[in-house]
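Students often ask why we bother encoding 3D structure as a string. The short answer is that it lets us treat folding as translation between two languages. Here is a chain of 607 residues written in the first language.
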Amino acid sequence: MGEVIRSSNPRIEYLREKANALPMLPGVYIMKDEKGEIIYIGKAKLLKNRVSQYFGSQNRHAEKVRRMVDNVYDFDHILVASEYEALVLECSLIKQNKPKYNILLKDDKGYKYIKITNDEWPKLEKALQRRDDGATYIGPYISGFVVNESLDAALKIFKLPQCSKTFPVKTKTRPCLNYHMNQCGAPCAGKMSKAEYDAALADAVEFLKGGTKQYLELLEHKMQAYSDNLEFEMAAKTRDRINAIKRLTEKQKVVFSGDETKDVFSLARREDEICFNVLRFTDGRMTGSANYFAELDESLENTRSEIIERFYSAHTDIPKLVVLDGECENADLLAQWLTKLRGTKVEILVPKRGRQLEVVSMSKNNAYEALAQKRSRSKADSAVIELGELLGLTKTPEFIESYDISHTAGADAVGGMVVFKNGAPYKAGYRKFILKDTIPGDDLGAMREVLTRRFSHRDDPDFPPLPDLILMDGGENQVNVALEVMQGFGLYIPVFGMVKDSKHKTRAITKGGGEIQISATRKVFTLVSGIQEEVHRYAISFHHKKHQKSAKQSELTSIEGIGQKKAEALWREFKTLDNIKRADIDTLSKVKGISVKDAVNIKRHFS
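And here it is in the second language, the structure alphabet:
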């Protein structure tokens, strides 16, 4: 028998007695912490049985549930007439309170909307969030691609302006190219009245809300009605609109044959960590994909159930078919709830073979790939935490900077600065320095110049924020230079040196004359070695480019009458030495500072 896990909650006996006194009726239970804040909300067909399970043996619980039980101070309950009413109430309360231990759907992108502005001439725009600004919002969508495609199609089909002009315009202007391509009604030129604009906008909104297939069916009915009433001009316009929609939608890739509208869910699991992927299909076309992360909640069946509840509490566009990669707790109850929300029957399916299983496999692959990437990032983060502890830092170094100097016998000296964020290269923060004031060959002077120029930009928004840790490519002397420069700026940032062995491999970290061995700590060793290799690579690659350019410029300065300034002017204009060689005398003499005589000398030199 395994070890018995006991709750550390001192009120466990009180909570157990209170749970055993609950009725055997359906309802919702609300767990609260010592401050009275709601930390978990659940539903039950039989309240007594469900709630008492939390305060019995902890061995059957997942880690997240045990943490929740440890923090429960008290709980409330609400009785309802049926298990279905419990589900509806639970969804509503979770949406209002967002309890800490319930599954709350968060991804790294957020939802997207299409916004209809509250202007005299309303516009269709993309929006990242719903605001209380009087505008109307369509969505949320889980894919920015879908928003872009849908919005682009609506604007073109209904000939709405795609420009940034505000209507009505004060003076009429010439219509742009979109008008001549039959993709805009040109209200800016007075070719589209306010009434026509409003009608087109209403149709566009109906198209966006209803989807392609549903809207096409509506248009075909309208076209037939116009034809039956002998309104042939309106029938022709409707026919053109139908054809425009078909042309645009046919360009989108059909992933599977058929015209199903469905959502496909699958889970990837590593211990208690869960990633679930959802693929959304509309009329047989994939219209969105998103990954979400959560912790295992009791069981996979229970976790699937919670995920579906949370997802459709946030999305009103519910399909006829919901496809899952495994069994789900209370599947019949969920199908009843979704059917009520949609207004027509919704089926929940766990496929065993065929085309639906192929789609589930594709979704599951996406989930495992996303989980692997997240775990890879977490590994890097854990190495940073371990490095901070090893160096005795008071906070985990989120931003780490490292510097190196590169030159050829003192010539073309440059400095390189690399930045690591949470243990991974942060290339937006990399910077290059061409050394200007340092005596050739003075490496410590070169490092002093680089650091001085870097810290002079400490408040510059175009530079990365000041680091939490600096790792110098070198030993004690480089560390002392960094401390000296920082002292001049009134800064204190922890600084350590990275020491190499005789084979130029990272051996240890140094400061204050001593060394901290890192070879025994694999994660830290890998991180520090990677930083040292990256800063060395970055500085050397920049030096090579500058050295090559200098060598080519020195060839130009060997030409009679061409000094450094003229060589730089030529280089700016022609970019490469080959372009300079190919240029004729007339082209060369048009460069600022280059006379006809200079141009003749250049041609003669390369001839």
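Translate back mentally: The chain is about 45% helix and 20% strand. Keep this in mind for the problem set.
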